[in-house]
Design goal:
Helices cover about 10% and strands about 40% of the residues. By secondary structure, it is mainly β. The chain is built from four helices and 41 strands. The strands form four sheets. It has a 14-stranded parallel sheet, with helices on one face. Strands 3-6-10-14-17-20-24-27-30-33-36 form an eleven-stranded parallel sheet.
């Protein structure tokens, strides 16, 4: 019986390894060209800094990231023609400055456009500061798209598709959209530029961790179902968040938001079951939250700081909404460059201006601090809550802290059945209505 060679197993393993290495080497030698690799059918992640435009090599993420992303979206559609298998893709924007000259049109579901840093910085302070030569930085940073739009379109991103089903699960995450300038008046909030416009019905979209600055309209979403606008920094835009048309089961949560005097910080139209919660909303929107024909929604736990009346405004008919545990801070405009501007409403309009039926306004704190000489009309007692129209609204357990005498709750003549409980002293309650219930704050 022959003795087994102890090195046989080791030599066999070495031969296998060598064969594997040779095969690997062969594979490396015969690897496809970069152009062929780009066309590999498995690609679902695109880096804008390495993608080559399919027809024009002069187009890069630095010369026109809009045209480049459109080319990537065309590639996604080409790679995923199967109706039953469309996983979508991720488009990645590393930190850097990218010029957008051509509007991006998103017409595919399951697409994520993601950066690495929302990069917000105040352009308003810079433009009003004069000499900035000693500043550490003067422009927004992170993954920053400069919205130049030399194609004549207003939007940086237009999300739109006809036919069925509606677009689903599009995500914008963690990059900055910078409108650059409000030329010629840097305090006008007007340049015609829109950051993201979603213009057809949509489902389960997410706009998260984004930075928006110096756009006339930052985010406009039409006909949204289960939309999440969460954790963004949206400021120094004419309007910040506009939910138009209709919508249901959506939320605007945990954002830092501050619009200009020409627009809305948060606007909601025709929504059902909308949650607006945990936002820090700062000046100087003409209204900080505006409801139009919005029902069974919750506005809770927000901090609202405003320079004008109508901080929470409404029009149309708004039913069965919960407005609770919010902190309203009203002051006059303190900054010289912005003092010439306001929203055209006087202090009788109310910090909350409510129109609708069956709404509950409860547990809110109003902190009013405006010098008597700045109250309009002169000599008036400012209004905190004005119930302007509606049936069976309930105003309960609200609190007011003020440097002047105020009307905590006012009921207009067209209201019926309003219950005002522990929200105003007898001296702070004014009613023009014939039918109401009132219990004074002791």
């Amino acid at each position: 019986m022959t003795e087994k060679d102890p090195d046989l197993g080791r030599r066999a393993l070495l031969r296998v390894s060598a064969a594997g290495a040779a095969a690997t080497g062969l594979a490396v030698l015969s690897a496809p060209s970069p152009a062929a690799a780009q066309a590999a059918p498995s690609t679902t992640r695109y880096d804008v800094t390495t993608w080559r435009h399919s027809t024009d090599p002069a187009i890069t993420c630095y010369t026109d990231i809009g045209a480049l992303i459109n080319d990537i979206i065309a590639d996604i559609k080409k790679r995923q023609p199967d109706q039953s298998s469309k996983p979508g893709a991720v488009i990645y924007l590393p930190p850097g400055d990218y010029s957008l000259k051509t509007r991006v049109t998103v017409d595919v579901s399951y697409l994520t456009i993601r950066g690495d840093g929302h990069g917000f910085a105040s352009s308003s302070i810079r433009y009003n500061a004069g000499d900035t030569s000693a500043w550490h930085e003067i422009w927004p940073g992170g993954s920053r798209i400069k919205v130049e739009n030399t194609d004549g379109k207003s939007e940086a991103f237009l999300v739109s598709r006809s036919g069925d089903p509606r677009l689903s699960s599009v995500v914008f995450d963690n990059f900055c959209l910078d409108g650059l300038s409000f030329t010629p008046n840097q305090n006008s909030y007007a340049n015609g530029k829109v950051g993201i416009r979603v213009d057809t019905a949509n489902d389960a979209f997410r706009i998260e961790r984004m930075g928006f600055v110096y756009l006339e309209r930052a985010l406009v979403v039409r006909d949204a179902d289960a939309l999440s606008v969460h954790g963004n920094f949206i400021a120094e835009c004419g309007s910040c968040v506009e939910l138009t048309g209709s919508g249901q089961a959506s939320k605007v949560t945990d954002n830092h938001i501050g619009a200009g005097y020409i627009g809305y910080s948060i606007f909601a139209e025709g929504h059902q079951g909308l949650l607006i919660a945990g936002n820090n909303i700062f000046p100087r929107g003409k209204s900080l939250i505006h409801l139009r024909n919005t029902n069974r929604s919750s506005i809770t736990g927000n901090r609202l700081h405003g320079f004008y009346p109508g901080m929470l405004d409404s029009d149309g008919s708004n039913k069965e909404n919960l407005i609770s545990a919010n902190h309203f801070r009203r002051e006059p405009e303190p900054w010289g460059p912005m003092q010439p501007y306001d929203n055209g409403k006087d202090d009788l309009y109310g910090l909350i201006h409510l129109r609708g039926d069956g709404n509950l306004v409860t547990g809110n704190l109003f902190a009013y601090d405006v010098a008597p000489a700045k109250i309009e009309p002169s000599g008036a007692q400012p209004t905190m809550i004005l119930v302007a129209t509606g049936y069976n609204n309930h105003v309960s357990n609200n609190s007011v802290v003020s440097n002047v005498a105020v009307n905590a709750v006012v009921l207009d003549e067209s209201t019926h059945g309003t219950k005002v409980i522990d929200s105003a002293t007898a001296a702070q309650f004014v009613t023009h209505a014939a039918e109401y219930t009132f219990r004074a704050t002791p």
